[in-house]
Every structure is written in structure tokens, then in C-alpha cells.
């Protein structure tokens, strides 16, 4: 079968798509009416313009020394997209050969770029027609946006200028026309326009270019005009298209807002009511705008005058760029403040947005704005980006302006309530005070507390914002350096040899510029790779272009032109592709863009709006519906809720029951927005406490009032003059009982709470609420005890969720069996009673804290890798972001980052690939390298929390990374993969400096010691030089008596000159002397150990993580071994699932991550 021919490669266009000369046809100037009007009239009548000449790339033929006739088209009637261009100069005849005359047949077709309609172009270039003037006028420039039927845009810049109409030598079509002209043209000036069309909206740059062209056109002879325009167009067409920028804007309609006077203009003719922007966000924005330095001369008035013209222009450009960045940042801050709380109403797993609940939380005056915005296509795109957890500019600004409380709230499993600190910071409006109840409001996640706001004015400039508490200072925008790359000179005539010389000069200059770049200039380096790759394509050097695009892929994947690379590979002949695939880097690149492009199914990025169910629900559907509602995400909790709502019924839930439960839950939230605690009460509470439940007014043995529950305590909110009476903290409770007391002939249900530190028992006549409060207090008491025992505050948060669900279940069912149904949610109370397991003393003393990187997910996720990075890494990092961080690799390429100074989530779940992550290392101060099962090394920028660089030189799973940090040599990273490949990387250039292959394969980990690499290959540990030459080998079958096993991992102890290793299937740690690896090893037995997963060295200790028995059950277990005594000092048990990974935090703490049954991280104190 014949091989399919390669597809021709459509090269990317340069800066110029088309250049045209436009003006009035000659015959329109010959009538006697113009002769009669030519004197004494400043402006003659308007004429119809037409296209006179068109210049379209390419401007050089493939054969050397043969030009294409400038691809110039001399037009009379521009009726077709494929136009005719002349090959020969016509013989001049009187009144023939003009634009309106007939054409000779000797011509050839050329193609006009899509999106350019030559019929409409004359009217766009001369909106008022061609007006011949009796005196010259100033040159003028205007701009065009040309859109084709598919919505693709091109951009035009039009420069108009005037030339005198001479008596004998007429300027038309670049030709001399000696003719008996009836019009004595003294004092007549004819307007012409030069239009440049580009795919890029570089209006200012093209305006500057056209301005330079006009200076030449005014001085040249008439018949030279076309040649000048042709040379000008040729130069622009040879400038390679720049890499794409990060900002793309779309809009349904254009709205122009004058922020000085508040006027609004809409692009459509239809009248539209543009709603006001949310007031608080608008006021904050206006305060910041008023602080801008908008006037260049005034801002620099205190400086001396610049006497050099170029220096002055550069100074003005730098000032303008700084101002533009400040405005961009302010506008982004405005958008974040308007839409920050959208994320609180999203369900990421099912891609659902609860628009109704979101609108309910908006202020009444802002409702119309949000209603209109929520219906737009742009908001839908915004939702897609949020649900995909895209770390774009909005997400980064949201992260950088997030308050500490918001970060803490991101870890909470229970529904959020405002803290006492936030409640105290709010001023209650007098008009609302009389309607408030003693329940806490829902949170306001904006980091600006809402003040008492003045009435709205038509102009935001006129609003008095003196009382607004938000900062009005201009955002401090660090200046960015502008880099200029000067293109080489273009030589004429444009024969192939000259063009190739130009391309060679471009490559040479780009290569030279790249060689001088500092290591930290990766962003600029990526742009140079992009440009050099394009130039190589223009030269026809496809292999060189692919090598540059491969380097670009490693440097900045954001601007990687995947479609262009795919088209380049498609256009290669079989020998060319075979040659490319002989290079390992290109073989991987071709596989990425060609093979895997068709394999990956398109992700479902639809956004659904939350709707209440309309049919009966089995368990699985109920789980999905509850998760979509945003009430609870945890599957185990939802299963218990299902049991509670179906007690005594068929195991399905009807739509009415679900609607009642949802309504009860949301009504409780709505009531919470209307109340606030008195200041006399708030002063007794911690600033981070929240009130989660209030009883009705009841009689107690300490007075009459309402019982309030926070995450920490119970207290009585007394009636009359509101006061605070402490009942007990949950930690201090000794016993909770539900009983009855006699009152006349009645028995009143009463709750009794006995405290550890008090003899007096608290009694409350809760009547019908007694049984519910009994369940709730016991659950909170059990949750607090578990939290204290396990140093895990999320037990309290989970208990709060159970309590609020109990309340909603009772309110939904409203039946005699409602309390029994709610008891199905008493999870921790039952756990305390049925499985009273004490935490071992050693564990309790060593364990400091536990955190959950899977908070907010629907189920726990295994912690595969942990990495601690110290704080104050880089002077460029913001102070608030310079804290130490803990990096957690979860399943499917997810990474969660904690602030290690407060153990709060810093960045929640961004993705690097879709496969399991095996290893992480901090390669330099602003980079974390992550090795993945998909054979890629992902590089994360610590400052932006983004992954724009990928290293793809490995061919199988990357299993380990180790950093060589010496003062003499450049910083290097060694990486290994399971197929036995070891690569050395230069961190600055991201290039492989050396590579070697271990023949045995199965490479699982490496260590660097004394300039040699120690490589664990399963059945042996091989010692090699950094260039791969073998030096020593420790074979497991020769040293362990021929037993069938393999190395799981090892650690080197240089001070003791020892190698510590763990073997599969054995509960011992083996110790070899580095002086004699052939000698039999010592053993340290690990009692009750069934599996070893990881081991690290901390000071003079070895910490080993795995699985073992504790109190008769299999648990995650850590063994701490003293290196000198070779004995187990501690056995630590704090995980219900196996310990998968360990890492050290400055040798002060050790952090352990558990498997997917638990998915938590424990923080241990090192002694």
C-alpha cells in the first residue's frame, strides 16, 4: 500500500496579513464640475473610494532571484476574494490604463486573507468618502476590527495622508500617465489611505510603522509609491508572530463607563438598563482609582527634564506600563471582591452551581446586577474555570487577598458560621436592630467588613467613602522589565537568498540573546524558543523547529503551540519523521502531540444549576443530590443521614421529604443572617468561636434564658438584660443525662450536665427539646474527647455537622420517631461507647497535631508524598506568603499546600498531570520538582503555585529525585525512573547534563553520598559514579542467606558509616557497614510490624513507617529507632490506615501521611 503523502504545512503568518493602498478613481476627478470648483473652495465634493493596490505575502518566490512581482494587485473593481495581479507594465494610452479602464488578461490569481472584505474596506478606510481639498490636511490614523462569519478577528490600522494632484504627472497605480489633463490641479490635494491588516491588535506599533512610511511616501515620486509600500509590507510580513499573551477577552456587548462622571454608554442601539456594581466593591475600587497618578507630567514634575528624545519616550513608556499594571490589578481586585463568594456555592465533584442560594446571600441593592451577570456567557465560562480549579489570575488574586479566617474556613467540615471576631467587627444598622434574633449570621467571606454605606449616586466618583474601612492605597505593583529584541536588517531585492540570510541572522541573534540570559529569566527564554522555532519553520528546518518547541515545552507549557507542532509533524516526510524520532526528546514530544491527543477523551466541562429532585431517590442518587446541594460532601455522613430519614420506611427518599429537609436546613441558615450576639456576651468568648445552636427560652437552675452551643462550650444567654452564664466546656463535661422532674402533676423533660471541676449539676427544663439537646451535647462531648486524644480538631468539626443534621432531621420528620431517627447521626457518641480505645501514652506525648488535606473532598485520599519547604525563601516573595509550607501529593496528580506556620490550607488541590505522584524535592528557592507515574517531572513555581514547566526525558515512571547542592558546581538534580534510567539536570537551563542506564531496572530510589549515587534496584543496591560507572554493589541474595525478597528502601548514616535498609515481607531493619558491604548485616526487629512502606533519617534516629498491630487491630504505625543503640525507642500509633510517607521539618518535627482509608497527616515532635 502506498504511503500517505505528508500534509503541506501552513506556516504561521507574520505581523502583516495584508497591506492596501486606497483612494479615489482617476476618472472621478476629470469632470468639468471639479474644474469649476477647484479654486476658492477649501473642500471639494466627496468621492467614492476604492482599493487601488493590494500587497499580500509571500513577497518572494521559492526560486532564488525571482520575485513575485511584489504580490501587488492593481484593482479597478474589487469583486472577488481571489484577485488578479499584473505581470507586465501596460502601454500607456490617453484615458486608458486608469483604475476604471479594462485590464489585460495576462495576470495570475492570489488569495486575500480570510476576514478581509475588499468590498467593504474602502468605506471603512474613508468613512466620509474621499474629499479632495484645496489645501493639505494633517495625517490621521484610525483603527479597525474585522470579524468574519466564524467570529475570527483581524485588526486593521489605517493612515490617511494628502498628496498634490499634478498637472502632467498623475499618481495612480505606481505608473506614469502623460495625458492631456483637463484639470489644472494647482491647489488640489488628493487623500490616500494605507491600510495594514494583522492578526494581532498591535495598534500603537503599527501606527508608528505607518507614520514612518508616510514620511517616505510624501517625499517619493508618484510612480515609486507602490514600491515603497511593497518594501514596507515585505518587512512587516517577515517579522515572526509573537507568542500568545495570557489575556483573552470576550464580551456579549461593549459597555463604556466614564469613571470620572459616571456616564455609561452601551454599544447596542437597544436601550438597556445597566445595573449598578455592588456598592462596597465599587467604593473600594473608586478609592483606589482616586489614588492613582494619572498625569505623567504632574507625577514627574519633581524630577529634572530629560533632554534625550529616546530616553524620554522610554521613560514615558515605562510610566504608562506601570500605570496600566496598577489599573489591571485594581480591576482584578474588583472582580475578585464581586465574585469571591461564588466558590461557596459550587459542588466541584458534580459541577453544580447553586445560583438561587448564591443570589439569596447578595445584598438587596446588588440583586439586579448579579441576576443579569449570572445569565451571561462570560459568567458561564467563569464557572467552568472555577469548577476546573484553574489557577488563573482570578484564582491567584483570590488566594493572595484571602484572610486567615477564610483559609481556616476552607478546612472546616461543618457549615461555616461567622466568628465572634467578625461579629464584633460589624456595625449593626439601627433599622435592623429590632428585628434581630439571637442566632448567628452566615459568613461574609470578603476580606473587607461592610460599613454603613451612604445612598447610591449616579456617579461613583461623587460617593463619600470616608467611612469605608477598606484600604484606598494603590496596589503595590512591582515593576517588570521590558526586553527589546532588535530584528536584523532586511536586504532588498527580496530574492530567496536575501530572505534566507535574514532568517539566518534572526536565528543567530536569538541564539546570542539566549546565551546571555540569567538562569531566572525562564519566561523570556521561553519566548525566544518560540520565536526561533517559528524562524526555523520559515527556513524549512523542521527538525530545528521541533527541537526549539521541545525546549519551549520544558520551559513554559502555557505558550506551547501544540496545534502548530502537530501540523509540523504531519507535514514531515517519512525520512524526516524517522530522523526526528531518533532523538529521544523529540520522540516523546511527537508522542505527546500526536498519539495522546486522540486518546484523551474530552472532559465534561458542563455546568449544572442545582435543582430539587422530582422523583424518588435510592441511596446513590441521594448521595449525589445532597452533595450537589452543598449541605454535606462526606459520603459516610450522607449514608448515616439516609438511614435517619428512612427509619421505619422503605429505603428510598421521596422528593417531598428531601424538599422539607433542604428547606429546613436553608431556613436555619436564613435565620442566622438576621441576628448578632450582644457585646457583653461576646467578650466572654474566644474570637474564633461561632454559635451553632440556640434553644428556646427555658428555665434552668442558673436562670431563665437560651442555651447556646459553640464548638467549644455551652453557655446560657439570660433573658431581660442579655447576659452570659457559663455552663461548661465540652472538655470539662463528666456526664450528660436526660431525665424528668416533677412540677405539680407533670413530669417535665430535663437535661442534666455534670462537670468535672464543679460539684453543682446544671439542669435545664428543655421540655420538647430535651431529647434533641441530649443527643447533640453527647455528640459534641464525644467529638471533643476524640479531638483531644488524637490531636485532631476536625473531630469537633465533624461532630458539629452531625449536630446540625440532627436538628434538620427532627425539623423535617416532626414525628414521635424523629429523635430515634436523629440518633442514627450520633456517630462519635456510639464510637466512644462501643469502642473505647485509649491512645497509647507514648503516642499522645509525641503527637502534636493532625491535619486533613482531603478536607472538602467527598472521600479521603491517600497521602502519597510529603515535602516541607522552609520559610523566607526569596526576597521576591511577599511577606505573608514567605511562611514555611507543607506540600502534599494526593491521588491523580493532586497537590495541596499547607501554611506550615499555622497548619492551615494555603492552596487547595491544584493538579500536575493525572497520575500518581511518587516524589517531590525543592530544586531551588522558587521551584518544587514533582516526579510522576506518567514519566513526567512537573516543575511548580512556589510563588504563583502554577506548573508551567515539564521535563519529559524519562520513558517510565519517575521514582525519585535528589538535589546536589555544592558551592563549586552548578546546582543539579538527579532523577531516576523504574526502567533504570538516571538523568542529571542543570536546574538553571533544565537540560540533561548526563545520563546513564542501570541494566537491572526496577530502580526505586537514589541517594547522593560522597560524590556517588546509591541506587536501590530491588534485588541490589548499586553504588555508581555520577557518570554511571559502577563502584560497588550490595546484592540482597548474597547477604541475606539466599532468601527471596527485595529492598523496599534504604537510608545512609554517614557519621556512623552505615546503610540501613528494609526488605519486602520482613519486619526487620537491616544494617550494613559502609566499610564492608559484603559482611553480614545487623538486624533491628520491629515488633508487631506487618508492612514497611517508608523510612527517613532525623538527627540520630531512623523513623520507619508502615502497618502494625495495636490493641489487636491493624493500624498505621511508626517505629523510632535510636541509631547508636540500634533499638526501637518508640512505637507511635495515630493512623487508622497504613503510613505511606514520612518527611522531616527542619529536624524538629516529622510528618506522616496515611493511606486512603484515613487520608490524614500527623505531626510528631522530634526529641
TrEMBL record:
This is DENN domain containing 3. It holds the Pfam family uDENN. Residues 76-247 form the UDENN domain. Residues 81-109, 446-465 are annotated as: Disordered. Keywords: Guanine-nucleotide releasing factor, Repeat, WD repeat. GO terms for molecular function: guanyl-nucleotide exchange factor activity. The keyword Transcription regulation does not apply. It comes from the Eukaryota. InterPro entries: cDENN_dom, dDENN_dom, DENN_Domain_GEFs, TPR_DENND3, Tripartite_DENN, uDENN_dom, WD40/YVTN_repeat-like_dom_sf, WD40_repeat_CS. PANTHER family: DENN DOMAIN-CONTAINING PROTEIN 3, DENN DOMAIN-CONTAINING PROTEIN 4. One of its GO terms (cellular component) is cytoplasm. SMART domains: dDENN (SM00801), WD40 (SM00320). The keyword Repeat applies.
